[in-house]
Amino acid sequence: MDEFEWFVNAFRALTGIDLSHYKRPQMERRLTSLRDRRGYSDFPSYVQAMRGKPELLDELLDRMTINVSEFFRNPERWKDLQAVVQGMGQSIQAWSAACSTGEEPYSLAILLAEMNVRATILATDIDLRVLDKARRGEYVQTQLREVDDRLRHRYFHQQGSGYRVRDEIRQVVQFRQHNLLSDPYPTDLDLIICRNVLIYFTEETKQQLVRRFAASLRPGGVLFVGSTEQLLGLSLSGLRPSKPFIYVKAEAGE
Predict the structure, then answer these.
(1) In sequence order, what are the beta bridge partners of 217?
(2) Would you call 12 a catalytic residue per the annotation?
(3) Hey, how many other C-beta atoms are within 10 angstroms of the C-beta on 33?
(4) Order of strands, sheet of 162-165, starting from the edge strand that comes earlier in the sequence
(5) Is residue 30 annotated as part of the catalytic site, yes or no?
(6) What domains sit in the chain, N to C, each tagged with a CATH number?
(7) What is the reported pTM?
(8) Biological process GO terms, please (predicted)?
(9) Which of 25, 30, 72, 214 has most Cβ atoms within 10 angstroms of its Cβ?
(10) d(CA 7, CA 11)
């Protein structure tokens, strides 16, 4: 067993998170760089320090993924999503998986409000710190660069140089901690958004997640993934491509 394999086992024991599901080269490179910057020469000493310094563990959890997002990221994809959900009815149950700091579930809530569609949105992430930020709904101006002036005025309060999502949008979204690799998935969903997350996982794990997403959707439900995440080479478990990066679960009998 090499040192990083030892670290994967130690980290699983410490947190319950199994890093073996993630692509090793990029994860090892990212975490080794963080470890070195904190002044530890090997992973055993780093793990020992994390046991006594929770802030080190919190930092590492944050570093596992890049928690950088913005409202309506890749706006042309959101226009495609709007076209797909247009005929789904006047009430939608949605899940924003690995939601980071909340821009995507709030973007969805705004999109559906503009369509006069009632929405219940569950937004989840493994990182409690980003969930706390998401619940506050406070963002800097650069995170709203794809939000036009009309939407910004209607759905945000200006706070100094930043903005806060208005209460009527924040109330649509329920934030909860969730581990995509081990926790139960919600069911009977109309829409799942999971963008720019699958790229971190091994092909085997990615296949497992796609299968579980498909099982969570009702027939006709939609999976919306990131613009780097075509599901090429995977068994789609009853999902069919609809528009780029958007997949629809087959209806019964299709």
Answers:
(1) 189
(2) no
(3) 11
(4) 138-140, 162-165, 156-159
(5) yes
(6) 3-64 (no CATH), 75-249 (3.40.50.150)
(7) 0.83
(8) methylation
(9) 72
(10) 6
pLDDT band at 252 (very low <50, low <70, confident <90, very high): low
The CA distance from 159 to 147, in Å, is 16
| DSSP, residue by residue, the chain | --HHHHHHHHHHHHHS--GGGB-HHHHHHHHHHHHHHTT-SSHHHHHHHHHH-HHHHHHHHHHHS-----TTSSHHHHHHHHHHHTTS-SEEEEEETT-TTSHHHHHHHHHHHHTT-EEEEEEEES-HHHHHHHHHTEEEGGGGTTS-HHHHHHHEEEETTEEEE-HHHHTTEEEEE--TTTSPPP-SEEEEEE-S-GGGB-HHHHHHHHHHHHHHEEEEEEEEE-TT---TTS--TTEEEEETTEEEEPPTT-
The active-site residue, picked from 18, 30, 58, 154, is: 30
Q: Which of 35, 73, 125, 190 is catalytic?
A: 125
Compute the mean pLDDT over every residue in the chain, rounded to the nearest whole number.
Answer: 90
The tens digit of pLDDT for each residue in 110-164 reads 999 999 999 999 999 988 888 999 999 999 998 999 999 999 999 999 998 899 9
